[in-house]
Amino acid sequence: MGRFELSSGISAVTQVGGVKLLRATACVQVKSAAATAANGLNDFEIEGITVSGGADHGYLAPVYCTGAVNTPTTTHPSGGPFLDYQKGWSYGVTPSLYIYERDCSPADYMGVVIKAKYKEKSSYYKVVITDTNGNPLDIIRNHRYIITVTAVNGYGHTTSDAAVDATPSNALKVLIEDVSAEFPCIVADGNSYTAMTNNVFTLYGKSAGAVELCTVYSSRGIQPEIDIPGGVNWLGGIASVTPIGSNKYKIMVSFSSGVDVPGSVLSTTVGIKCDNISQELLVRWTPVVLSASSDGNSYVIDLIEPTDRNWVVQIPSPAPAWLALHSTDNSAGSFPGGNGMVTELYSKYSAHAYLHVSTGTSGLGVVLKSSTSSAGETIANRIVISQ
């Protein structure tokens, strides 16, 4: 534990000794799939949710809280007592609740009670957050548990008390997704889903050996298949697809010879498939960086594109000494040693995210950018600087 004094207040460029913040709670969200005559959702409307068996307090720090702060995969449960579910209602057609961590088992689990109107009559349905084998999932901080109602065939219970005391409802068919902040790119069908850490990969700099393209999560534990279009000679191929535990797979690719024209951008779309679920990943490579600002010792890249909305740019910890971000300064001469250099920037406070790269050090540096497009699509870009 430590203490930091912010004597000059907090601004967009404030650094707190490398301290990262992590949510102490998980989020439970319920929504409906697109309505059709076959799934019964034309006559179904969600009104609100609450939870039974939800923890009413939690620990400040996650489990095994040492080193870099990342979204955990195991709980740090505080144990009971549990919330009074009658006081925890969240209302709306896509309601969300934030809840503390807890362990779950078939005999002791957290239930989600959904109040919904079916054929103009309100009733209550109970759902349990489970894996594909039907086992209740532990509730872990910084995870988002999304329950999508995909079909309805009858009424629920007449009271919320009755729903809490009952077994999970057979009148609803749901798809349950356990989403952490590291896997924002999700595609699902009625039985399973696949998520990726990023749907864009950008490489700046010289030809690199094996580099991490992305990490894929498969809810069914199916190793992804990678499809590289024919004729893309500059993308050397898949170096490896490695299971790293918890149904996650790390994909490494290699880059071969590129072009020597400064500023030229090579681009292709790679297909990633787990069973019958497919996603696309845009791969871009600028072999020779052409910067508007370069002084021989460093250069600057503006990472924000005109279509980016609600963006966040981060240099993961530990950040290499030869990379830094600045919200306004795009002058190469400012780095290293300039004021206001940070490792995170947000569109809420900044119009630009200028990446300053100090030359002369060999290695790979990683920058993560998340945003939404003007069409509302999620964009997660893994940016690698090679020199």
Break the fold down into its secondary structure elements and pairings.
Elements lengths: L25 E7 L11 E9 L37 E2 L4 E4 L11 E8 L2 E8 L14 E10 L7 H6 L6 E9 L4 E4 L4 E4 L3 E6 L4 E9 L6 E3 L7 E11 L2 E8 L10 E9 L2 E10 L11 E5 L6 E6 L8 E4 L17 E3 L7 E5 L5 E9 L5 E9 L1
Parallel strand pairs: 1-7, 11-17, 11-24
Antiparallel strand pairs: 1-4, 2-3, 2-5, 5-6, 7-8, 9-10, 10-12, 12-15, 13-16, 14-15, 16-17, 18-22, 19-21, 19-23, 20-22, 23-24
Write out key terms for the chains shown.
387 residues, mainly beta, 5-stranded antiparallel β-sheet
Q: From N to C, what is the helix and strand string?
A: EEEEEEEHEEEEEEEEEEEEEEEEE
> Which strand order spans the largest sheet, edge to edge or round the barrel?
13-16-17-11-24-23-19-21
Strand content: 35-45%
Q: How far apart, in Å, are the first and last alpha carbons?
A: 36 Å
How would a textbook summarize the main sheet?
8 strands, mixed
Radius of gyration, whole Å: 24 Å
